[in-house]
Queue: 2 jobs
Job 1
Amino acid sequence: MLRLINPEQEFLRYRRRLEIAGIIAAALFIGLFSRFAWLQIAQFEHYHALAENNRISLVPAPPSRGVIYDRQSMVLAHNYSAHTLEITPSKSGKLDATINRLAEIVAIEASDRKRFKKLLAESKNFESIPIRNLLTEEEAARFAVNRYRFPGVEMKARQFRQYPFGASFSHVVGYIGRIGEKDQRRLVEAGLDTNYKGSDHIGKLGLEASYETWLHGRTGIEKVETDSGGRAVRLLSRTAPVAGHNLYLHLDAKLQQVAERVFGDYRGALVALDPRNGGVLALVSKPGFDPNLFVDGIDSATWKELNDSLDRPLINRALRGIYPPGSTIKPFMGLAGLELGVRKPGDTISDPGYFALPGSSHRYRDWKKDGHGMVDLKRSITISCDTYYYGLAQQMGIERMSGFLSQFGFGKKSGVDLDGELAGLMPTPAWKQKRFKQPWWPGETVIAGIGQGYVLATPMQLAVATMAIANDGVIYKPQLIRAWRDPASGKMGYAAPQVMSRIKLTPEFLRLVKEAMIDVTLPGGTASIAGANTPYQFAGKTGTAQVVGIKQGAKYVESQVSARNRDHALFIAFAPADNPKIVVAVMVENGGHGGSTAAPVARKVIDYWLLGKLPTVLAPPGPDAVVDEVEDSGPAEETPADNPASTAASTIGTQQ
Amino acid sequence: MIPRILSRPVSHLDGPLLGLLVMLLLTSTAVVFSATGESSERLISHLSNIGVALMAMLLVSHIPPQRLMQFALPVYIVGVLLLLGVTLFGIVVNGSRRWLELGITRIQPSELMRLAAPMMLAWYFHYKQATLRGRDFIVAALLLALPVGFIAKQPDLGTSLLITASGFYVLFLGGLSWKIIAGAAVAAGSALPLVWNYLMHDYQRQRVLTLIDPASDPLGAGYHIIQATIAVGSGGVAGKGWLAGTQTHLDFLPERSTDFIFAVFSEEFGLIGNLFLLLLYAAIIWRGLWLAAGAPSLFGRLLSGAIVLTFFTYAFVNMGMVSGILPVVGVPLPLVSYGGTSMLTVMAGFGIVMGVATHKMLVKT
């Protein structure tokens, strides 16, 4: 249908429509205005508060971590400031591209990238993750100039933890690491999570872990005006953080280094205590590792290398390595025999070179094939006669033996101020029933008498037990910490020696055992070479811990396996015997015989401590050297079939 | 004596409208200065954009409507071809294929369509005015749908909706029957589920959803809305004062110099400022419609009316979006947002409005 248009009419309609449009537009503008009025008058308070909150945020100010000193005020762990480059993934865009561009202005190694990926996987998206630590001045300046090119990348001044002695104190001082999921959960459970806002690190091992609450300090709060990116624009008010406590240890860095050095290429552990207060003078576990690697996330290749190493550098042998104490148990067994009335000091036995239970043909052999002849208690310690103790143990019985030896700390944690200590084992029939659902066999008592079979102890436990003899029965709790300084008050606090127990011992018996231990280091004793020409009275006892079986992983090289099947050498000592100032327990892994490898280590450590003498001969012979000195070596013949102890022994490598 | 060359240029400008526009541009300058963190560099660039836009308005106002009508069809065809080119060879920026690389420079043909589409439709109605039939409305709708379809596919929802609006205004002012308008409204309403399910992109659906409940995604799509609403609301009646908006200056507001500049203005000048701005826009629209009504030709009336109503639509959609009653579509606040292209298009549009109103028709209709 064709319409003829009347221009006049058309124009009027146009005007009408224009008016309608204008009215609609006006109505919509009025609608908008009502919306504005609603937001800006009715809702003003609400949005005003929101805007204020947007502006002001509470930013945690992390405290600086306490410094750890040795007894001579040598620094074992401290902090320094440096620049890091951190990426906030949620703001940076494509990560790989960003890192590649960053690599053009600062050095970024493959290991940095790997660590970044690992941290990224562990973190939440809005956290900033370090890609590079310890920027040089030049790199920092270069990044500052190029900053605008990198949204989401920030340079931050951070405090870094450093361990100047590296591997020497890896197992004592430990290390801090980034707060992981587990740590976070633990903090939340302990109600400490607010104090860790702003902290990236937490003690993971050693003193860093056990004194975490002291070292960490109290987080401060800064009230700052921020932009939406959380960047502080202006500081409004500030509650200063309180730095963590500085710790002063009983530990002596030089003694520790001397001990480490005299181990040479051997693996092993050494614990040196001050018997007068329980202070830990040295605590060595060799090999160690560089704790500095862990502070900002270790890369997985290095971690794998450390973790898979046959040398097990990550295990603290001093606290977590459990070994059969072997002959080092004999002084304690001797005391038990005397105190329990099983033996009198003058009683002698005739040693034919073996012991047999009544009604059994099975022979428990002495390490000396033809026997030691007539042996009394004193001599049994000096020459380390096995037969004497087979009989003694059998007569005493496992219950009484276990009860008496427990007083010296066998089978119990020493309570040292480090986490993760193992308790070792002082077996009883009840324990065996519970653990293996089997009765106790008499033969098990016999070998327990020479510290084999189920009996297991850590080097720390051996040191503590030795302290009991040196101290006439008084056991102090071993403590690394000697004092601390509270930075808030500037006051020093001192860790009081804590008596763990006083064992009732007859002075006469004690004197006898001490004399026997002195004789050990004199001509005729098992450690006579190591004990030659000491200007002080040197009391000790050798021992050997059997390595019956080690897990034969397919990748182990045959020659290594045989070297690692060699017995662990043990030595416990204290000196000067008349006024003990140091107690030492040494374990040399695969060292063979206690007298030839472990005793010299103890001697050199004590020489340094008492005489200030630095070791001239650096190390005992290496693991492959021929060791043929006469020494005790536990039961020579044990049939695995009737001796479940071998099952236990088979797991003794270093640690369960 | 005023030289001819100086007196002539102003003869096609409308004094009151020019005055109002300049007031708006001055307001814009103040807000842009605040929104860009008092950057003198951006201020200069903004002022030069204004200068270029004013020059464009001046030049366009000199084009007689008959000449404009001659341009309508070729410009429209070139525009559609360019859009086709974008679809085939366009480069993707931020997930949208909007730009065409021309070697020397890159252009966004959808900008051209903002004026080309209503011009084409106005020309078509003018051409058919003596014999206008219902069928012609269908043809006009198809002429509009072609470029809009291309632009919607880029995807550029905001621009395609606004070009649809400008085309619709031509149809509406050209006498589109109310029945059809009502029918189209019903059809559009019932087509919404289809559009929602099949035509809209995920991010577009997300924008609508976040409008309903911005808190559902406070760090993602809802962030813009939440922060902008906080800025507006916390401005109160009197505002926080020029250069004193905390949301603005503490970097909470995204895109604060472009699409979200109204939040900056609203935070710093409050409800009073908003009222002033609404009145200023209303005055410009009123004056624009007044000029459109006085245009001597149908082409001029339809085009001018559509341009002014589109200007209104831009302003309304932008302010509605910033204050949280419309979904977030990428529409700048006309003549206030920082950005040369949009300003140029809008001012050229007003140049047309003024030119159409002030040129005498040679051929009487």
Job 2
Amino acid sequence: MNIPQELFYSKEHEWVRFEGNKAYIGISDYAQHHLGDIVFVELPEIGAEFAPMTEAAVVESVKAVSPVFCPVAGKVVEVNEALLDTPEKVNEAPYESFLFAVETDGAGKENLLSAEAYAPLCPEEEETL
Amino acid sequence: MKLLFEKEVKGSNRFRFPEPEVSADAAPEMIPAEHLRTADLGIPELSEVEAVRHFTALSKRAFGVDDGPYPLGSCTMKYTPKICEAAALLPGFADIHPYQSPWTVQGALKLLYELQRDLAQLTGMDAFTLQPAAGAHGELCGMMIVRAYHKSTGADAQRNVVLVPDSAHGTNPATAAAVGYQVREVKSGPDGLVDLEDLKSKLGGDVAGLMLTNPNTVGLFEKNIEEISRLVHEAGGLLYYDGANLNAIVGVARPGDMGFDVCHVNLHKTFATPHGGGGPGAGGVGVKDFLAPFLPKPVIEWNEEEDVYTLNRDLPESIGKIKTFYGNFGVCVKAYAYIRLNGFAGLRAVAQHAVLNANYLKKRLSARYEIPFDVICKHEFVATNARQAKNGVRTLDIAKRLIDFGYHPPTIYFPLIVNEAMMFEPTETESKERLDEIAAAMNTIADEAETDPGKVKGAPYTTVIGRVDETRAARHPVLKYVSE
């Protein structure tokens, strides 16, 4: 299971990459693996505002429809529209496929996990699924 | 298989419509131009025999309970006695029209009235409507009633949240959202039941109610239901019963006695009217007395003195109409026949046998399959592929392989709280011999998963169309027929 060192993670399996006051958000390798083939993503509107860990986007796989939470407080400034036509990118390259980015004051960051702290939430024995 | 349009032979249809009573030439004078058809209708021309063969061939490719066991969890695909069909086809029920005066359809109104009374008695509710056309439609009706109640007390503006457990049917949060509520999820504990501590933390002055299925979607009875009811009501919320799993407790326990204020009943599940494939259903809604003024109108009333049934539309607090006319009447006739056929004691036996069958099959499967909540269950249970996963065999593969043995697969990947779930609901109408056959087939698949996993992963082999590419179908759907 790939868990890049430089990213932050939520307990609900989102990853966050901070660039200045911007936070890019996607789903982790573990999340895409468990969801299975992703067939549809629903992205937030530019300008939408979210409190930490509120539902901001939706990913639909062949198994289930799952919410994606916005791990930090912020206002959406960018969405990855390419995923609307190629949702498979989330499976193929989860950490290169951000779903949306928010402008944030950092609220909620204190509850995010480092790669080391996140790893135990991705138990290895289920990897053969 | 070719479509009707591809089978067309011009000139082969010799049917001729009678001359219209109104000349087609007069149409432009009577109908505005934008509503008049200018292009051909495009109905394919086939001879009668070719049309009959087409639909007969299609019917042979379908699979229903009349073909074999259909243990689709949370769907209650039980066998429907054919006498219920016969009752619905009686001319006095089948040949009437909803525009007829109530005086000319007293028998039909009496049947609906008595069915409402029976369902009220079976669920412990005080009043019923039979208008909703399906389970989710019943949920919509029930939650509109909840909202109408909060509006009547002035609490609607502050109560804008509906609680839904994480094991709930997807229709519950969808319904709450459709009625204008925000959805707040309540977690399940490690025992598969509602986590009371989590429930307490989610309750507050903003909560309009809790939607709950009992037994829940892992087939377990929410044994803390009285405590749940107390907590929700103390917080000022109402309790909604999702009747999808009523087959497990009908005649044994009643939602009304557990503290539920509103419930819907899937007549097409518990009361054996055939369903599936989008056919007609019925999702009657029952309420406690204090919610009766909000029921959809018209309401059927009985004047005992004159023994006359009437339709009351003078209901100022009603949520209004929820379905054209009075619901799916034919489905109600079948449900009524089913209740009369079994009697209340027979319905109790239905629930007992449904529970016995599920526990028997669970025990048989537990030798080879992982059972995440391996306690006495109600009418359904959840198994997983955990022991087969090491060979790369997924739940989807096991379900597809079961088709080759002549059985409909269980519900898969639901409930969401169990990874790679397979949810079996054998229902009371399968015999022990049939359950043994299903268990034997599942054991064979478990063997294959060890010795020849590729075989399981390539299934099914006996169907006209084998393994389909579900991912591609979902990513690049072709949703309508395109002629060459």
